[in-house]
From TrEMBL:
Residues 1-27 form the signal peptide. Residues 276-310 are annotated as: Disordered. This is DUF3108 domain-containing protein. InterPro entries: DUF3108. Keywords: Signal. The keyword Signal applies.
Amino acid sequence: MRSKALLSLALAAGFALPAGEATTAQAARSRTPKAGETAVTVDYGIMLAGVPIGTAQVTGSVDGPRYTMDVSARLTGLVGAITGGYGSGRASGTVAGKPVPAAFALASHSASASITVRMAMARGNVVASDIAPPLVSDPERVTVSEVHKRGIIDPVSALMMPAQGRGELIDPQNCNRTIPVFDGASRFNVVLSYGETRSVQKPGYAGPILVCNARYQPIAGHRPDRPGVRFMEENTDMSVWLAPVEGARVLLPLRIAVRTQLGLNIIEATRWSQTGQAAPSAQAPQGGQTGAEAGAQAAAQAPAPSTDGR
């Protein structure tokens, strides 16, 4: 599975953002949300085999049934100096029991190649798409048919996981789902299942999260005989931590861990900030509580709201 697909599984979007394009997510953090809108920005650090290799950011906005998601990442340090890896992704659409994307765009760049992907969708079906440069025909690839472009979720929208039913956001059932991802070139499922519930403390967030186990199921567009594809298909060392977004009845990843052939790839939140409807209060802790204790109490009382060788 190629590097873009790995990040689709892990961060669900491609490697990262050009420095000039980072302003989109940064502006979203600072702007004032509209009435009824909930906005959240999560900064991440990326590590591979215990070595920091990059940073990422996810910014999401939910306004009634409509959502917008922006994802960015950049390789840093020696890896970044060698590969020059960066890019960005954006998706928008409506959300109910699952995201129903209307538009998706991804741009990723490295020292050796640049790729852009654009898709337009209607009711979860791809109606137009473009990849530049075009994919090279390869008889080893499983053919992507029109059937594989129906009822799909793009990699960026896949990061946002709506609550299933009317229960609590940290109901274990919110882990149990199959995400049908199409990234413009390949179709695969990310299958999540409940692992455990635990409490965590991060800058900007303290409270319960769901730990979901993850599996990768290739459907089309991949090379089934490639070692990287077989490795990921058999990989059981993958997980995602989901944190509730108060007021929006959705969950976002706080941590993603994927075992790769080079070691464990971890994408973990370093800061969580939320504005708008049901945003956590910024008031100082009372009664001698520490900030972490106050944050945990507030969270507990809050309303339930590719390395396949491409």
